[in-house]
Amino acid sequence: MSPPPFTVVIGAGPSGLVACKTLGESGIPYQCFEAGSRVGGQWVLGNSSGTSSAYRSLRANTHTGMCRFQDFGWPEGSPAFPGHEEMAAWFGSYADHFGLRPHIRFDARVVRAERREGQGGWRLALASGERVDCDALVVAVGNLWSPRWPELSGALDGPVIHARDYMDPKDPVDCTGKRVCVVGLGNTACELAVELSQPGAAREVLLSCRSGQRFLPRLVAPVPHPSDPLTGPLRWLPGPARRALFRAVFPRMIDKLNASLPRPEDVGLPPPPKDPFEKRFVVNDHVLDRLRDGQIRAKPGLRRLCGSKVEFADGSREEVDVLVAATGYRLSLPFFAEGLLGGDGEDLDLYRGVMHPRFHDLFVIGVTKAICSIWPRSEQQMRFVAPLLRGDYRLPSQRAIDRATWPVLGVPYGNCQFYTHDLRRELARGRRRAAWRSRARTAPGNGRP
Ligand SMILES: Cc1cc2nc3c(=O)[nH]c(=O)nc-3n(C[C@H](O)[C@H](O)[C@H](O)COP(=O)(O)OP(=O)(O)OC[C@H]3O[C@@H](n4cnc5c(N)ncnc54)[C@H](O)[C@@H]3O)c2cc1C
Ligand SMILES: NC(=O)c1ccc[n+]([C@@H]2O[C@H](COP(=O)([O-])OP(=O)(O)OC[C@H]3O[C@@H](n4cnc5c(N)ncnc54)[C@H](OP(=O)(O)O)[C@@H]3O)[C@@H](O)[C@H]2O)c1
User: Fold this and answer.
1) Which H or E run includes 369?
2) Helix (H, G, I), strand (E, B) or coil at 161
3) pLDDT of residue 255
C-alpha cells in the first residue's frame, strides 16, 4: 500500500483546524499555512490576514448546540450565542486540545498554487518566496471576505464603505449624528442597521434593499447537528423524496417560529421570496421592530448617488452622509491561476460539494449554501476526505463523479444533516469498492506471470 499523501491545508480558520485535526488522527502527514497570526479565521476581529469581516458587536447567530464539533463541545456556562472573542478563544482551545499548533505556520500566506507537471499534486508559493510541494491540497480559506460591491453610479459627497471594513458606529467612519444608508438585507445589513439606529449612534438609518427576505428570531431550538444520524423513515427514503418532504415541512416550522415577528411587508420591506430555500434566513430579533417603530426606514434598491443625496429605484431621493454597502462577499481563491478550476470564478463545481471533479487531490471545505453552522459541516467533509486520501475510500467512475458534482454556491439552500448522511453513504460504497479492489489484487493468480 502506498504511503498516505503529504497534504497541505490552506487556512487555520474553523474549517482549516478541523481539517488539520482529521488528517492528523488519520495518520496523514500535513502542514497548514495560515496568513494571519492566530487561529479562528473570521472570528479573530481585525485578523492580521485581512480576511475577517467581523465587527465589534458580532455574536454568532448559531447557538452552541449547533456550532460545536462532533467531539469537542462548548464549556459549561458558555453563552448560547457567543461573541467573536469567545468564538476565537474556543477555536484556540480546540487547536491546543488536539495539539494542532506545531503543524500550523502562521504569517504564511499562500500566493500561488500550481499543478505539478506530470506527477499530480501541487506546488505552492508563499508570500515569503518559499516553495512547497504537496501531494494533496485542502483549501479552507472561507468565502466571506472579498467584498461584493453594489453597482454604484454617480458619486456621494460623504464616505462609502463596505461592511467588510465596518467595526462599530465610529470606526472606520464616525456615523454619530449622521444620516446613514445601509445597502442590503442580509444578516450583516440588518445587524449594522440595528446597531446604527441605537440612541447616540446615527441620526437616521435607511435600509435599502432590492429584494425581500425571510426572518427568524435567534433560536435555541433542538436543531439536529450534521453529525446526528437521520431518524427512521428519513434514513430510508430516497434522496429526492427526503428533500421534497423537507421542503414541504420546513417552511411551516419556520412560519410557526416567526409568528411573533411583524410581517416584512407591513414594515415597508419587499415581500419574502416565494421559495424559502432561495436565500439564507435573516436571524435578527430587532430589525423588524425598529422598522415598525420608524428607527430604521426601509427604502428600495439604489439607483444612483447624487452628491449629498441618494436616489432609489422608486425615484425618491434622501439626504445621506455615509453609505455602508452590506452587500455580501464573493468567493475568492486568488492563488489559483484564472480558469484552472473551471467555472466563472464566482462559484466552484465540486464532487459531493468537496472535491474538484478533475483534480482528485484538491479539496475545498467550508464553502456552502447550507442551513447550518459551517465548521460542523467541514468536520463531516473531512471525515470523507481523509479515507479518500488514505485509499480506504475508492472514487467511483469519472462519469459518476461528474453526475454527483454541483456548483457549491449555485444550488438552493440545503439541509446539512441530509448532506452528511449522503456523504456517509457514499463513503460506505467507496469503502466497499476499495475492499473489492484490494481483494481482486491479492486473489491467487493476480499479478503473477
Ligand atoms: C459576520 C459573519 C458572521 C458569521 N456568523 C456565523 C455564525 O454565527 N455561525 C456560523 O456557522 N457561521 C457564521 N459565519 C460564517 C463563517 O464563514 C464561519 O463562521 C467560519 O468562519 C468559516 O470558517 P472557515 O475556516 O471556512 O473560513 P474563515 O473563518 O474565513 O477562515 C479562513 C482562514 O484562511 C486564512 N487564509 C485566507 N487566505 C489565505 C491564504 N492565501 N493563505 C493562508 N491562509 C489564508 C484566513 O486568514 C483565515 O484564518 C459568519 C460569517 C461572517 C462574515
Ligand atoms: N451574527 C451573525 O452570525 C452574522 C452576522 C452577519 C453575517 N453573518 C453571515 O455572514 C454571511 C454573509 O452575510 P451578509 O449579510 O454579509 O451577505 P449576504 O447574506 O450575501 O446578503 C447580501 C445582501 O446584499 C444584497 N445585495 C447583494 N448585491 C447587491 C447589489 N449589487 N445591490 C443591492 N443589494 C445587493 C443582497 O440582496 P439580494 O438578495 O437581492 O441579492 C442581500 O440582501 C452569511 O452567511 C451570514 O449568515 C452572520
Assistant:
1) none
2) strand
3) 80
For residue 140, give the ligand nearest its CA. 1
Between CA 105 and CA 158 the distance in angstroms is 41
User: pLDDT for 266-305, tens place per residue?
Assistant: 999 999 988 878 888 899 989 999 999 999 999 999 999 9
Ligand 1 geometric centre to CA of 103 (Å): 19
Cα 212 to Cα 184: distance, rounded to the nearest angstrom: 10
Would you state the cell numbers that stand for residue 267, as one nine-digit string? 414594515
d(CA 401, CA 395): 8
CB 304 within 8 A of CB 153: yes
Question: Which ligand has the nearest atom to the CA of 328?
Answer: 2
Closest atom, ligand 1, to C-alpha of 373: 11
The grid cell for 241 is 423524496
- pLDDT single digits (tens) 338-363: 999 988 888 999 999 999 999 999 99
Distance 375 CA to ligand 2 centre (A): 19
Q: Which grid cell is 200?
A: 447616540
Q: Which residues have a Cβ under 8 Å from the Cβ of 3 and sit 6 or more positions away? A: none
Residue 100's contacts (CB-CB under 8 Å, 6 or more residues apart) are: 12, 17, 20, 21, 24, 32, 39, 94
Neighbours of 448 (CB within 10 A): 5
**Pick from 327, 310, 326: which is nearest to 318 by CA?**
310
Please tell me the residue having the least CA distance from ligand 1 atom 8: 60
DSSP codes of every residue in 166-180 = --BTTBSS--TT-EE
Cβ atoms of residues 183 and 267 within 8 Å: no
The structure's pTM equals 0.96
Domains of the chain: 7-145+330-442 (3.50.50.60), 149-217+261-327 (3.50.50.60)
Q: Would you state the cell numbers that stand for residue 365, as one nine-digit string?
A: 471545505
What's 59's DSSP letter? B
Kindly give the residue spans of alpha helices, DSSP state H, lying in 204-295: 232-236, 239-257, 287-292
Q: Choose one of 66, 148, 210 to mutate for the ligand 2 pocket test, by most ligand atoms within 8 angstroms of C-beta.
A: 210
Length in residues, the chain = 449
Letter string b/e over residues 83-96, b meaning 16 or more CB atoms within 10 A of that residue's CB = bbebbbebbbebbe
The 104-105 sheet, strands edge to edge: 104-105, 30-33, 7-10, 136-139, 362-364
Cα–Cα dist 416/71, whole Å? 17
CA atoms of 11 and 34, how far apart (whole Å): 5
Contact 418, 243 (CB under 8 A): yes
Helix%, strand%, coil% for the chain, nearest 5: 30, 20, 50
